[in-house]
Design a protein that fits this description.
The protein has helices at 8-20, 25-33, 50-75, 91-97, 122-132, 148-161, 164-169, 220-223, 232-238, 245-256, 273-277, and strands at 79-90, 103-108, 115-120, 178-183, 197-207, 210-219, 262-265, 295-299, 302-312, 315-323. It has 332 residues and is of the alpha+beta class. A six-stranded antiparallel β-sheet has the order 1-5-6-3-2-4. It has a four-stranded antiparallel β-sheet with strand order 7-8-9-10, with no helix packed on it. The longest helix is centred in the N-terminal third of the chain and has 26 residues, at 50-75. The radius of gyration is 34 Å and the shape is extended. Residues 254-324 form the Flagellar motor switch protein FliN-like C-terminal domain.
């Protein structure tokens, strides 16, 4: 590995310091010979690469957009959800970082093993519930005294909302989210060991005038079987996978059987609104195309051929004369 290149000014300053005694050459040699040690905390093991963290962020940015659309339709009010951070921390640290009493939704994501957690700040949860019950979306916090009806309303809302995770993950892995538990006290929820590494995706959420955070906690053991699929290289290769012959045949057959519109344009004309309103049966409209010029055949809205009019078996027809060259769709 090449050493650092010094500028001439830096070299002059270094020589000056050595000559004046401000720096000791022997001390510099001693420091250089010492091994440089990087501190590593085994309680805070980094088990995901930066590339994999970026992939998880990208997946949940899509999930945040889907949640924004879903809650906007359900609550009929202003909703904005976006990813603010994606971190890997010990599970114990995540539990300490959230409120002592909060809204905890637990999900399974088969075929992956294990459970994932969605923690919703009570301010957000109560604003949602108030809107669903016909209120203005006022936020208040009485999470310790949730009634059975309030618990059912909240759990139903978050159960249906989390179904969007399946679509967000569809480009990487097919999962089937299943809502399994509702809890308000993090101390009663022990999903993995305290030192287990988890990924925490924090979503900044605004619903009406209420704002707060939604945190999605995914243990490493859940993602371990599909970690290779979280790399950018896998995403790029996935787009170039060879299709099965039967699938290619089915797609080709469907394309061949697809119907498209073919229109022969006889000409165009511009008239005033007054003339248009005065049109009557038997009136003639002069077109801008002389009869000795070829007609244009359009496939959809795209000019593809020139043709001349005629008859076939006593029916009006056109005979293709040339293919129209140029244009971005020339080879289609």
């Amino acid at each position: 590995m090449p050493g650092e290149v010094l500028s001439q000014n830096e070299i002059d300053a270094l020589l000056s310091a050595l000559s004046t005694g401000e720096m000791d050459a022997d001390q510099l040699k001693k420091e250089e010979s010492e091994k440089k040690v990087k501190v590593y905390d085994f309680k805070r093991a980094l088990r995901f690469s930066k590339d994999q963290i970026r992939s998880l962020t990208r997946i949940h940015e899509n999930f945040a957009r889907l949640l924004t659309t879903y809650f906007s339709a359900q609550l009929r009010t202003y909703v904005q959800i976006s990813v603010t951070s994606t971190d890997q921390i010990p599970y114990e640290e995540f539990i300490r970082s959230i409120p002592k009493m909060t809204i905890l939704n637990v999900y399974e994501v088969p075929p992956l093993e294990g459970r994932i957690l969605m923690e919703v700040n009570p301010n957000i949860a109560y604003a949602m519930m108030d809107r669903m019950m016909g209120g203005r979306g006022t936020s208040f916090n009485k999470v310790e005294n949730l009634t059975e009806i309030e618990t059912k309303i909240m759990s139903n809302a978050f159960e249906k909302a989390f179904e969007n995770l399946k679509e967000a993950w569809s480009n990487v892995f097919d999962i089937e989210p299943v809502y399994t538990d509702f809890e308000v006290n993090p101390q009663f929820l022990q999903m993995v060991s305290p030192n287990e590494t988890v990924v925490v995706i924090s979503l900044s959420t605004t619903i009406g005038e209420a704002s707060g955070m939604i945190n999605i906690c995914i243990p490493h053991v859940v993602l371990e079987p599909i970690i290779p699929k979280l790399s950018v290289r896998y995403w790029m290769q996935a787009d170039n996978k060879n299709r099965e012959p039967a699938e290619i045949h089915r797609i080709t057959s469907n394309i061949h059987n697809a119907e498209i519109s073919v229109v022969t344009e006889l000409g165009q004309s511009d008239i005033s609104v007054q003339d248009f309103l005065n049109l009557d049966v038997g009136d003639c409209i002069e077109l801008n195309k002389p009869i000795n010029q070829p007609l244009v055949i359009k496939i959809g809205d795209i000019p593809k051929f020139t043709a001349q009019p005629g008859k076939v078996n006593k029916k009006m027809a056109v005979q293709i004369m040339e293919i129209v060259k140029g244009g971005e769709n020339e080879n289609e």
